[in-house]
Design goal:
By secondary structure, this protein is an alpha+beta fold. The protein folds into three domains: 1-163, Beta Polymerase, domain 2, CATH 3.30.460; 175-294, Poly(a)-polymerase, middle domain (Orthogonal Bundle), CATH 1.10.1410.40; 300-376. It is 46% helix and 14% strand. It is built from 13 helices and twelve strands. A hairpin with a 5-residue loop joins strand 5 (57-59) and strand 6. Helix 10 crosses helix 11 (300-326) and helix 11 (300-326) packs antiparallel against helix 12. The longest helix is centred in the C-terminal third of the chain and has 27 residues, at 300-326. The radius of gyration is 23 Å and the shape is globular. The relative contact order is 0.08. The mean pLDDT is 90.
């Protein structure tokens, strides 16, 4: 995700303060939009506004300028490509690209959003988790607006969705080991059992179920011996969401994540029946998962080892991305001489080297370390 810091968006009722002349200021208008969405009115055009932003304004019919989410994505889609880079068809707010034939990415261009009332309302909820200091960090990380409207809305082409990517990364990093494993098991069930065709149930849906469970239950109850009990609870919560077509978004509960799932009746009935059967199976439900079944029967140790290396690389990558933001100067250049950045890169290289050595010893063909790095994280 790329966040344009030359544009600043303000919540409906937040008073505008003095901004430097180069900053473009937009005001959100959410009263006629679905929960968690808004439209953006131009309040002040900055002197260094990017053409991708400037060319995305349209008239709202009352002489005011609205920033069109649809035009915004299309403008970024027209960027010049570097050598070896291929751009694919737009997918919602994202612009999929492939570099060198195997490195895939989905770029979403977003805008920073100052929304104190939404975040303070979230932080004030009574909860078992996260602890107050983590909740405050989530609040301090703020929000962004991504260029995607509510499906079916008459204002869809000019609507933006409120997202809390940095805050949600902070929340996920503070889940305990059992909660993280629960999330992994749910994603495996989605991929290996449910097989959604068009993200009717996504990893994001499952992440929200885990976050709600963490908030509403004592942390001490999430331990190694209870993981199958919590898997049962999570599957039941997913079944309820499928039956009612309702699942509140963790950050803004008024937004229903199932409202635009696109789930047809036949698929809904099939999934409800499948999950009901899984609930009746009890602990044996994990044997439905091919990877788990194979590892339990044949190769328990290598699975644990490679999984551990993958989790460590994912965590190192997240920390390095956050550090890159801190080390970026006014020209968007990253200072790679930073001691923490160098330590993170050094540890990543050590992990990749360990993986390559083990793969070679096990008889696998290793082309290069970079290819192994990307395949581990796929």
């Amino acid at each position: 995700m790329g966040v344009n810091n030359r544009v600043f968006c303000l919540e409906d009722d937040v008073k505008s303060s003095a901004f430097p002349g180069e900053i473009t200021v937009l005001r959100s208008l959410s009263r006629r939009s679905y929960h968690g969405h808004c439209r953006l009115l131009l309040e002040k055009r900055g002197t260094t506004i990017l053409s991708e932003v400037n060319d995305a304004f349209c008239d709202d019919g009352y002489g005011r300028e609205l920033l069109s989410s649809d035009l915004f994505v299309n403008n970024w889609s027209n960027e010049d490509l570097t050598e070896g880079e291929v751009q694919h068809e737009r997918a919602g707010p994202s612009i999929p690209k492939t570099m060198l034939g195997y490195l895939h990415s989905d770029w979403v261009h977003a805008l920073p959003y100052y929304c104190p009332s939404i975040l303070s309302k979230w932080a004030a909820r009574p909860r078992h988790w996260p602890p107050p200091e983590v909740a405050q960090r989530v609040v301090s990380l703020g929000a962004v607006l991504t260029p995607v409207g509510f499906k079916g809305s008459e204002y869809q082409h000019v609507e933006w969705r409120v997202c809390f990517n940095a805050g949600e990364i902070e929340l996920i990093s503070n889940l305990n080991d059992t909660q993280n494993k629960l999330y992994v098991l749910l994603k495996m069930i989605k991929n290996d059992v449910l097989h959604p065709r068009k993200k009717e149930v996504s990893s994001y849906t499952l992440k929200n179920i885990v976050l709600w469970m963490a908030e509403n239950n004592p942390q001490a109850s999430f331990h190694t011996k209870s993981i199958l009990q919590w898997l049962h609870e999570a599957l039941d919560a997913l079944r309820v969401a499928l039956v009612t077509l309702e699942l509140p978004y963790y950050m803004i509960p008024e937004r229903n994540l199932m409202a635009t799932s696109g789930l047809d009746e036949e698929q809904q009935r099939t999934w409800i029946s499948t999950i009901t059967d899984m609930l009746h199976e009890g602990p044996r439900v994990i044997l439905r998962l091919p990877k788990i079944r194979q590892c339990i029967v044949a190769h328990p140790e290598p699975f644990r080892w490679y999984s551990g290396r993958r989790i460590e690389l994912e965590l190192l990558g997240l920390v390095r991305m956050n550090r890159a933001v801190i080390c970026r100067d006014e020209n968007e250049e990253i200072d790679y001489t930073d001691a923490i950045m160098q330590a993170l890169i050094r540890r990543e290289n050590e992990v990749i080297t360990d993986v390559c050595v083990r793969m070679i010893m096990e008889g696998s063909r290793v082309i290069n370390a970079q290819a192994i790095f990307y395949r581990i994280l796929m």
